[in-house]
Amino acid sequence: MKRVFCTAVALMIATVAFAGTTANLDNMTPQQAMDKMTNCPVCSAFMVDPALGPTIRHSVFATKTGYVETMMTADAGMMPSFKKAEAECERRAGTIPTMTQAEKDKLCPICTGRMAFMGRADAAVENFNTDMGVITVASSNTPEGVKALHDYAATSEHFGGLLAKAGMDMGKEPMKSKM
Questions:
Q1: pLDDT for res 19
Q2: In what order do the strands lie in the sheet with 123-129?
Q3: What is the pTM of this model?
Q4: Span between the terminal Cα atoms of the chain, in Å
């Protein structure tokens, strides 16, 4: 379950706590999104190797019962760095239950969005490792669970767009919101 959490978190390479809706991101600038990701106690694991960020590719698609998400590196040579960052992110995600409120307040929208459905009995999340990253498939069999997963997918897509814009504004592309 933590691997799923970190994979999606990593997709942004970076993340003030927000609920799982895009409405809370409407007034966020791309630079604020990048700052949020960079300072997220979990996601910042993907910022350790500056060469990794520009290679990250992320996509998320709502499905009838949940979402499908991909988080990959476009450079096979970066897989060792990707795996190391993913493992550190996973370790950090495991500490969320014991974080202070001040630390939780620093979590990015991706982390807080995932917290909204993690541990739900009606949400199933599976990860599949690929040669270049991870594919996550999440589904639910209740309308409430599907809504929680769709809210996360919308937040992830919106936040990813802000991060991609921030990368372009900086003259780089730290991640693509679509493959």
A1: 36
A2: 56-62, 66-73, 133-140, 123-129
A3: 0.79
A4: 24
pLDDT greater than 80 at residue 93: yes
Q: Which class for 141: exposed (0-12), middle (13-18), buried (19 or more C-beta within 10 A)?
A: exposed
Three-state DSSP state, 170: coil
Instruction: Give the Cα separation of 6 and 4 in Å (integer).
Output: 6
In the 8-state DSSP scheme, what is residue 151?
H
Give Cα 31 distance to the centre of its chain: 17
Strand ranges in the chain using DSSP code E only, listed in sequence order:
56-62, 66-73, 123-129, 133-140
Six-digit token string for 176: 């693509």
14 within 8 A of 36, measured Cβ to Cβ? yes
Token digits of residue 12: 């942004």
How does pLDDT run across 95-154, given as a tens digit for each residue? 998 999 999 999 999 998 888 888 889 999 999 999 999 999 999 999 999 999 999 999
Residue with tokens 């960020």: 53
Query: Average model confidence (pLDDT) for the chain?
Result: 82
